[in-house]
Amino acid sequence: MGITSCCRCFILALLWFQSQGCLEEERAALLQIKDSMNSSESSAFSNWYVEECCDWEGVECDPSHTRIHKIFFPHLRSDSEPWFPNATLFAQFKDLQELELPGNHIGGFISIHVFRKLKHLRKLNLRDNSI
To answer: Which first-to-last residue range defines the signal peptide (predicted)?
Structure first.
């Protein structure tokens, strides 16, 4: 096996490892956020049964499909009771650039100070909430 063949194998192995899908801690955090929302909307989270969370509705990942960089959950809660999401769950998304949660009856956040850890966050949309 020549050097060129070894290099090709090495590059293919790197590409395979990098395209393994979203990180388990980000996947787990998404599921906890979903559970805390108590959404009764029938279309909300309709495709969250597939293994790859980068393919889930309302979630976008970076081009390598390893880190989540956008969460978009608009008007998913029809419950009129305020929702107080645990902000520490959002801190799991180290490369998060956009967080959009409009119209979800958010009354405030638990542990709001963790948003400072989101160094890449450039868009935060919380309109139509009760904060």
So the answer is: 1-21
User: What DSSP letter does each residue of 35-95 carry, written as one string?
Assistant: HHHT---TTTTTTTTSS-GGGSTTEEE-TTSSSEEEEE--S-----S-B--BHHHHTT-TT
Domain containing residue 38: CATH number: 3.80.10.10
Indicate whether 15 belongs to any domain: no
Residue-by-residue pLDDT tens, the chain, 131 positions: 556 655 454 444 444 444 457 899 999 999 999 999 887 666 678 899 888 999 999 999 998 778 999 999 999 987 788 999 999 999 999 999 999 999 999 999 988 888 889 999 999 999 999 88
Counted domains in the chain? 1
pTM score, whole prediction: 0.79
